[in-house]
Design brief:
With 552 residues, the chain is α/β, with parallel strands linked by helices. Helices cover 55% and strands 10% of the residues.
Length: 552
């Protein structure tokens, strides 16, 4: 026994060594290929300053720069001390997330290139100390500004503070950077959603950004709340409004600063990198997939023929990295805007998301679904509201009643209230359609080497939507709902049970409804008796033709 165990241990150690050597060989081959990359060479020995590094896109940006540009000197990450945690603790929390697993395993030394900078977008000079400003000034040549509040229902004061004043404070800091070669600002394609077609240009602002910032300083919350709807006009929320103002502010204030603007549409889970399907929040379609997969979301107000302009997260990230390279090396005379959108070259409709999503959710069901996922998108608002009552609130009130009777906390009604508030913020985007002109990313691709196009891919024409939606569903299952892949067989068995429970429930409800009608209507009873008599008569004839006797 000892001999066998020792032999197995030796084999295991050998396999481990072989796997380790294979990984090293793969990394070396990967690095040799990247030696032919202009972009990788550009970032060598450069220092980069990033705001919003702890956000969804920020994490992917940091990981991509470390993994594909290992020669980068330093990544300075603006971080706000939060909940009693200092910036060192927050940095540790950042690099311990799933997105950095491969880097921690294969190249842990690269983590030493991350340097946290204590700061706050809501403070003068971003709250950065004088010594840190000097350090940034002496070293940083590339700045990525992605920090923003992305809440659609954010109060105007908070949105202005973060998205508008925060951008102004960043501009003031950037002016002090002596070695600056490129500033890449992350906006949103929906900043100008009051128009049907959005070109790659900075539009006139809906208001004077400087005057608005002054007004916010002296107006109280209640007064601002009262005039918010009038201020934002045709825009659906304060997020898109303040993002439009920020773009104009940059155009006004960044004379002489090498600036480019990247406007992504609806940013969704990763297609391939850093991990297929990786996502860390319930925003946008992710919440819809999770809710529908669990059987909670049964209806959505949505125009199924309209284009859903979603974009996997690594596409805008790769574009940002390439845009910084192009801005620094080609030195364009104007501010180039890049609409990072899929609908212009590779459109996907909400109806296709519904169909492909249902296929994926039935193929890879979530664990312990509460109901069989068979809801649907409704173009008609009245039908949607009826379904909300029938399939969301009636079952929720009934189950909460049973929960209270059994001494358990009632939570479903509260859960649906929260879900409907979130969905109401999305309704504008699921019932409207835009044409985002996206030519500048394609032109940039043409200026990149074949190796750069491979490593820093952002050609939306290559996205296979059915495959991506399946990856998205699997990613939501794994990273949001924390369902282990090993639970799939049990989840499929449970899904089958829920299917039959749904079918039996439908038949039972139909019979109960018909019984109630028959018991109160003489006409309904006559119709029922006539139908039953005809059915028996038909069965007799069929059986007689087959030579089988049926007795009364």
């Amino acid at each position: 026994i000892v001999f066998v165990e020792s032999t197995n241990q030796t084999k295991g150690d050998h396999r481990s060594i072989v796997n380790s050597e294979q990984q090293k060989t793969h990394r070396h081959t990967h690095l040799r290929k990247m030696a032919n990359s202009d972009i990788v060479g550009f970032y060598r020995d450069r220092s980069v300053f990033i705001t919003g590094a702890t956000g969804f896109m920020g994490k992917v940006l940091v990981e991509k720069l470390l993994r594909c540009c290992p020669g980068v000197k330093t990544l300075y990450l603006l971080m706000r001390p939060k909940a009693g945690n200092d910036i060192r603790t927050r940095l540790e929390e950042l690099i311990s997330t799933k997105v950095f697993d491969n880097l921690r395993r294969d190249s842990p030394e690269l983590m030493n290139k991350l340097v946290p900078i204590a700061g706050d977008m809501s403070l003068p000079s971003l709250g950065v100390s004088t010594s840190d400003i000097k350090m940034l000034s002496d070293n940083v040549s590339i700045v990525f500004h992605s920090a923003a509040t992305v809440k659609f229902d954010e109060a105007l004061k908070s949105a202005v503070e973060m998205n508008l004043k925060g951008t102004m404070r960043l501009i003031e800091l950037v002016r002090k950077l002596e070695r600056l070669d490129a500033l890449v600002h992350v906006s949103t394609a929906y900043a100008n959603c009051d128009k049907d077609e959005i070109a790659e240009m900075i539009y006139p602002p809906p208001a004077d950004p400087h005057k608005l910032m002054e007004c916010v300083d002296w107006m109280d919350e209640e007064l601002l709340k009262g005039i918010t709807k009038k201020l934002i006009g045709k825009r659906p929320n304060t997020y898109t409004y303040t993002k439009a103002l920020a773009e104009h502010l940059l155009m006004e204030e960044c004379g002489g600063i090498p600036l480019a603007i990247v406007r992504p549409t609806i940013v969704t889970a990763a297609m391939k990198e850093p991990i297929p399907g990786w996502v860390d929040n319930l925003n946008g379609p992710t919440g819809l997939i999770a809710g529908a997969g669990k059987g909670l979301l049964r209806t959505l107000w949505c125009h199924t023929t309209m284009v859903a302009d979603v974009i996997p997260v690594e596409f805008p990230i790769n574009l940002m990295i390439a845009v910084a390279w192009h801005t620094a090396t080609h030195k364009p005379n104007n501010i180039i805007v890049y609409n990072c959108a899929s609908g212009y070259h590779n459109p996907l409709t909400w109806g296709e998301i519904e169909r492909q999503g249902r296929v994926a959710l039935l193929k890879y069901p979530m664990s312990d679904v509460l109901w069989y996922p068979s809801g649907s998108f409704k173009s008609n608002l009245t039908l949607h509201k009826i379904d909300v009552v029938l399939y969301h609130y009636l079952p929720a009130y009934f189950l909460d009643f049973l929960a209270r009777m059994s001494g358990n906390p009632a939570m479903l009604v509260r859960l649906y209230d929260k879900a409907h508030r979130a969905m109401s913020c999305l309704n504008y985007f699921t019932t409207h359609e835009w044409r985002f002109i996206s030519e500048n990313p394609i032109q940039l691709l043409e200026k990149m080497s074949p190796e750069d196009r491979r490593v820093f891919y952002f050609d939306v024409r290559t996205i296979d939507w059915p495959s991506y939606i399946e990856t998205y569903a699997l990613g939501t299952r794994r990273f949001i709902l924390k369902d282990d892949p090993s639970t799939l067989p049990a989840a499929r068995r449970h899904m089958t049970r829920m299917f039959w429970i749904q079918q039996i429930s439908r038949v039972a409800i139909l019979l109960l409804f018909w019984r109630a009608v028959v018991s109160r209507s003489e006409t309904a009873r006559r119709v029922w008796n006539l139908a039953f008599t005809m059915l028996v008569s038909m069965m007799r004839r069929l059986s007689a033709g087959a030579g089988i006797g049926i007795t009364k």
